TrEMBL record:
It comes from Nocardioides exalbidus. The keyword Lyase applies. Belongs to the group II decarboxylase family. Sphingosine-1-phosphate lyase subfamily. This is Glutamate or tyrosine decarboxylase. Keywords: Lyase, Pyridoxal phosphate. One of its GO terms (biological process) is carboxylic acid metabolic process. The modification N6-(pyridoxal phosphate)lysine is found at residue 229. Its cofactor is pyridoxal 5'-phosphate. SUPFAM superfamilies: PLP-dependent transferases. One of its GO terms (molecular function) is aromatic-L-amino-acid decarboxylase activity. The keyword Lyase applies.
Length: 478
């Protein structure tokens, strides 16, 4: 019988590395092995614990309350602020939207006002909870247009949203003006600080210019902040903070309408593993203020070094100067961004391509961690080599027939055969009768094809791709 732990090691060999500072999306690396050791041991110790009932596992309740207290101190929260530990940024955002909706039962068709750069999790919340997303274009600096957002607020608006920072571009919205406009109309204002919530406060303490965005801004009613990002905690925790308890109360769910135990939940989940909570608490206790200040300094030193690298490459430019630890690059006409991404990946640097949106072309996203600093010179070399290689390879061209095929389809009425045709055209599915996936090692042609498709068509194709990926693996019983 195969040793399952040995098989895990083999399976993990195909994954992106979570340590080493070279995976510039999805993971956040402190670069400190002791942080990882403490997190792993705490997660293992509480893997079987269940945060569903705080009276059954009071240690988890204590840890959650201490995490919320630490975050309240970071984010200038008033004394009567409250918070909840969630499973991630998306759940924090879902709960912020659901709570805002349920706080206004008088509104039949609730709406929320979002800048166009707000995270896609708000669109997910709109889909789940029946809250119309009113999208407001951003300014040329990719920050929310506060005046336009104010004009979009009406009697059905239950929530107004700002980002600190936005994921795609790494800039902080004008929270002061947005929150003031929301408060003037009696509407909640949520700041999505899932990325910046644990790093921007320390950046400000280190003397970097950070626009105001915390609870110190009047009118901010809730903030989401992910601990599994720049708190360098294990995956699976975020915080949703409210200015006071009355704002959080609509988030809770209780039901005694069945013969079992009375269900009582603070989040969308019922059973919640204690592992991520304990792992997060242990890391925060270990690092403390001084540790986070040091890690923040390292992360921003890496950001500054990467910005300098970009400025030395004539074919590259920053889309916008970053306010936080997210850096977004764009290329000139001599350099294909998707080929550049492939070249960087081939040299051991995972960066995230971002497709065209509206009037803006494709770009490359980097989430920079403290662990990246030790390897910045390697990144600089890889970036220079990748630019030369990508320029030599030339632009990726999408076959005119594929473009015509995409343009002729209606994503709302696509059938299975159409999906299969798109998957085959993308190179993501082979030509076998089983339609086996053939994941290419280079993604430039796939990304170029997605880039010419409409957003709705991109969604349709990727949903079909995910459907093909998630199929039963029979014969895996050991």
């Amino acid at each position: 019988m195969t040793d399952p732990l040995e098989r895990l090691k083999a399976l993990q060999g195909a994954d992106l590395p979570v340590h080493g500072g070279r995976t510039l999306a999805y993971v956040y690396d402190s670069g400190d092995p002791e942080v990882d050791r403490i997190a792993r041991e705490a997660v293992a110790a509480y893997a079987g614990s269940n945060a569903l009932d705080p009276t059954a596992f009071p240690s988890l309740l204590q840890m959650e309350n201490e995490l919320v207290g630490f975050a309240c101190g970071l984010l200038d929260a008033p004394d009567d602020a409250v918070g909840t530990v969630t499973s991630g940024g998306t759940e924090s955002i879902l709960l912020a939207v659901q709570g805002a909706r349920d706080a206004r039962p008088d509104v039949v068709r609730p709406r929320m006002v979002l800048p166009a750069t707000a995270h896609a999790a708000f669109h997910k919340a709109a889909h789940y909870f029946g809250v119309e997303a009113v999208i407001v274009p951003v300014g040329p600096d990719f920050r929310a247009d506060a005046r336009a957002m104010a004009d979009a607020i009406d009697e059905d608006t239950v929530l107004v949203v700002a980002s600190a920072p936005s994921y795609a571009h790494g800039v902080v919205d004008p929270v002061t003006d947005i929150a003031a406009a929301a408060a003037a109309r009696g509407v909640r204002c949520h700041v999505d600080a899932c990325i910046g919530g644990w790093v921007l406060p320390y950046a400000a303490r280190l003397g970097r210019a950070v626009p105001p965005w915390t609870f110190a801004v009047e009118g901010v009613t809730s903030i989401s902040v992910d601990t599994h990002k720049y708190a360098y905690a294990p995956k699976g925790t975020s915080l949703l903070l409210h200015r006071d308890g009355s704002l959080r109360k609509p988030q809770f769910f209780a039901s005694a309408a069945w013969p079992g135990y009375t269900m009582l939940n603070a989040t969308t989940q019922s059973t919640r593993s204690g592992g991520p909570i304990a792992g997060t608490w242990a890391v925060v206790q270990h690092l403390g203020d001084n540790g986070y200040a040091d890690l923040t300094g390292r992360a921003f030193a890496a950001v500054d070094a990467i910005v300098a690298c970009v400025e030395r490459e004539p074919a590259l430019h920053l889309v916008v100067a970053p306010d936080s630890t997210l850096v977004t690059l764009a290329t000139d006409e001599t350099l294909d961004p998707f080929t550049l991404t492939d070249e960087l990946v081939s040299r051991g640097w995972y960066v995230q391509p971002q497709l065209s949106y509206g009037d803006h072309g494709p770009s490359i996203h980097l989430s920079v961690s403290a662990g990246t600093l030790a390897h910045v010179q390697d990144l600089a070399s890889a970036l220079g080599e990748s630019v030369v290689a990508a320029q030599a390879a030339g632009p990726v061209a999408v076959d005119a027939g594929v473009v015509a095929f995409i343009e002729a389809l209606d994503p709302a009425t696509l059938g299975d055969d159409d999906f299969d045709g798109l998957l085959a055209a993308s190179g993501l599915v082979g030509a076998s009768e089983q339609g086996d996936l053939e994941l290419p090692t280079r993604m430039a042609e796939v990304n170029a094809m997605l880039d010419v498709a409409s957003p709705a068509m991109r969604e349709a194709l990727l949903v079909a791709f995910l459907d093909r990926l998630q199929r039963p693996a029979f014969g895996a019983r050991g």
